[in-house]
Amino acid sequence: MNSTEVPEKPAMTVPVTTIGGGPTRPDSDSLGTMQVPEDAYWGIHTARALENFPITRRPISVYPDLVRALARVKQAAARANREIGVLDAAKADVIERVCEEIIAGELHDQFIVGVIQGGAGTSTNMNTNEVIANRALEIMGHRRGEYQFMHPIDDVNRSQSTNDVYPTAVKLSLVFGINRLLEEHALLAQSFARKGHEFAGILKVGRTQLQDAVPMTLGQEFNGFSHTLVEDHDRLRETIPLLSEINMGATAIGTGITTDPRYAEAVCRHLAEITGIDTVTAKDLIEATSDVGVFMTVSSNLKRAAVKLSKICNDLRLLSSGPQAGFGEINLPAKQAGSSIMPGKVNPVIPEVVNQIAYSIIGADATVTAAAEAGQLQLNAFEPVIAHSILQSLAWLTNGCRTLRVNCIDGITPNVQRLAAQVETSVSVVTALTPYIGYAASATLAHTALTTNASIADLVIENGYMTEEEVRRVLRPERLSGLVPATGVIDVITQDDLDAAAAEQR
C-alpha cells in the first residue's frame, strides 16, 4: 500500500464478553458474541439484560405465578402451532414437556432477568424462550446453544411477539395471584365474623370523630369489619373476567403479522384448556395491544382493599391502646417484646405491618397510573413496572391478610369489665332517652352528668322524667345497641306533662 492509499475501516464488531466465571459457551445475536455459563439454560439475550438492567437485583423468578404463566403461554402457542401445521410436531411436543416442568416448579432459578427492564418485557420473553429451547435441546440429546435443532425464536417463539406474550402472561399471573388473595381475604373476613359472634353480648361505647357517641356491642364492631372485607372481596373477584381478555395473535402491534389466520383462535382455545381460565381474544387486537386499562382497574381495587384493611388496623390499634392509659377495650395477642428500653412494653406489631403494606400498595397504584398514562401509540413500553407493582401488591396483601388473621385477629380478647364501666359512666346513653324526655332536657342532663360525674339514669329518675323501671327498660343493652329497636309511636314528655305530674303529687 503506497502512502496515498486510505486503509479500509475494519468491520464493526462487538467485543466478546463473559458473564460470570467457570466454563462458558459462545452465544451470538445480531450485535455480536458473548460467552455465557456453560451450565446456564439462558443465552445471550438474557446475558445482555443482566448487563443492561442491574436495577432492582430482583429476578422475575420472585414472582412464580409470572414464570408459570409464561410457560403456559408458550405451551399453548406450541399446541396451536402444531395444530395449524407451522411447527414440527416433535418440536412442539418437547416444548410442551419443558413447559410442564416449569409449571411444576422446575428451572425457575434460570429466570434471572430483572423485574424492571426496558423493552416492554422483551428480556423476560427472551429469557423464557432461551430456557425452554436449551432444556428442550438437552432432552433431545443436543448441547445447549445448538439452536439449529431447537431455536428460541424460530421455534419456541413461533407466531408470537413479546407484545402479546408478555401482557397475556401478566394477566394470567394476576388471575392466579388474585385467586390466592381471595382465599386469604375470605378467611380473614370469617375470622372477624367469628369474633363478632363471640363478642355479640358485650356492650361498649361507640365513637365518632374520636368522641363518645352511642352504645353498640363489640360484636357489632367486629361484624362491621367482616362485612367491609366481604365488599372488597367481591370487587377483587370482579376483575378476573376483565383479565381473561387476551391479545395472543396480535404479535407486534395488533395486526397479526407473521401469524397464520387460524392461530389466534387456536392459541386462545388451548390456553383456556391449559389454565382453566375462560380466556377470550380481544375484538380489536390493535386496541388491546396498547391498552393497559385493566391493570389500572386491578391496581385500584387492590388499593381499595388495602386502604380499608389498613383503616381496620388503625381501629385495632386504637381499641387496644394502653393498656392502662389508652382505650384498653381489647387485647391483641402479644407477639414480641416492644422496646429495648421500656420493660414489659408490647406493641401492636401485626396491625402495624399491615398498615405499611397498605402504604406500599397506595404508592404502587400511583406507579401503575403513571406508567399507564405514559404509553405511546401502539404499545405501552412500561408494562414491566406495571406488572412488578401489581404482583408485589398482590403478594404482600395476601401475606398481610394471613398474618393478621393468624397472629392477631384469632387471638383477640375483650376487656369486659373496662367496657362495662365505660358504658355505665358514659353520658352517651342519654341519646336513647331523647325520644322520651326531649332533646333539651337530655342536653341539660348530659351537661350535669359531665360536671358532676353523676349517673344519667339516676338524674333522669331524680328529676322525675321517668321511673326506674322505665329507665331500666329503655337502657337495656339490646335496645341501646339497636339489636331490639323500639317500635311504635313514642310520646315525648313535655314540660307541661312534668308540671302536671308534679301538681298531682302535691
From TrEMBL:
Limits of the Fumarate lyase N-terminal domain: 32-363
SUPFAM superfamilies linked: L-aspartase-like
Repeat in keyword set: no
Pfam families named among the record's database cross-references: FumaraseC_C, Lyase_1
Residues forming coiled coils: none
GO-annotated cellular components: cytosol
Keywords: Lyase
Domain called Fumarase C C-terminal: residue spans: 430-480
CDD domains noted in UniProt: Aspartase
Biological process terms in GO annotation: aspartate metabolic process; tricarboxylic acid cycle
GO molecular function: aspartate ammonia-lyase activity
Sequence segments annotated as region (Disordered): 1-30
Keyword Ligase in record: no
PANTHER family from the UniProt entry: ASPARTATE AMMONIA-LYASE
Protein name from the UniProt record: Aspartate ammonia-lyase
Native source organism of the sequence: Homoserinimonas aerilata
